[in-house]
Amino acid sequence: MRVLLTGAAGYVGAVARAVLEDEGHDVVGLDTGLYDGCDLGVAPPPTDLRLDVRDVEERHLDGFGAVVHLAALSNDPVGDLDPALTYAINHEATVRLAEVARARGVERFVFASSCSMYGTSGAAAAIDESAPLAPITAYAESKVRSEHSLSALADDGFSPVFLRFATAYGVSPRLRLDVVLNNLVGWAVTTGAVRLQSDGSAWRPLIHVEDMARAVSAALSVPRERIHGQAFNAGADEANYLIRDLALLVGEVVPGAVVELAEGAGTDPRSYRVDFSRIADELAFRPEWDARSGAEQLARAYRSVEMDEAMFSSDRFVRLARVKTLLAAGRIDEELRWTALSERITA
User: Fold this and answer.
1) Within its chain, how far is the Cα of 87 from the centroid?
2) Which end of the chain is more exposed for a tag (fewer CB within 10 A), N or C?
């Protein structure tokens, strides 16, 4: 299948592209390139369409059987930088992309949604896809709005499917250190301390970035009637973790690392346990990684590039810090679009 992959040069996209191509898909990557150069080891392949997702036109969708839409302002801190901009990119641009895709006869639209939409569930048991959505950040709210709008576009020729991903972790050519397990392992390897930014009492489901790519592949391959307009929590029941337990696990994986609370650490209001039985039953999807094997992989990768405190604390692998650096240098404007200055620098 010919697939347009948005966010192809990002943390998930760099892995998803390789997985989809290995499975025989003809993948065309679209990315605006905000995180070019933020690489761990070998950089991902060059982007086919260097384009802001807000600027997609009908001609860009010709000849595709599916769109896999990963492009977004990708976490809560970046989303809170400017909530209105978050909605413009994560929601409005998503709807426009889907409208253009539908107009061009694209049959399947795989949307990267998020379990963060459940907010603070307050439930003793894990919650499934029928649970009320209670987003508490602009990022999570943008995902709720997008699911609602995409559902309204579903028809006999256009099938959106929503993958509500657990929190990502694992090695990617475009590493992120602003996700919990990657961050904890980074602290341990570079400082000898596993530093908790909260009191560790929150529940969080996790999924390895390679398993995220495999879930996307499953959503592309199953018959239409099994995915049309449907939402699937993407992860595994056994991968719901207390943050403090993750910290203790990292302390075991990185010998000598000591678990400690960051100054001012308090309760994280984002706490939810999630039921992932539907994706296992209906898409036959089961993750291959767990937190321990992922933490071991991360530790090996960090050591292979000799990551130290300076690299760990730089803007290279933290999305909000990278955006602020580009803004301060005048390379992007307040709408996060490349400026003429950046064009001169890269020419």
Assistant:
1) 16
2) C
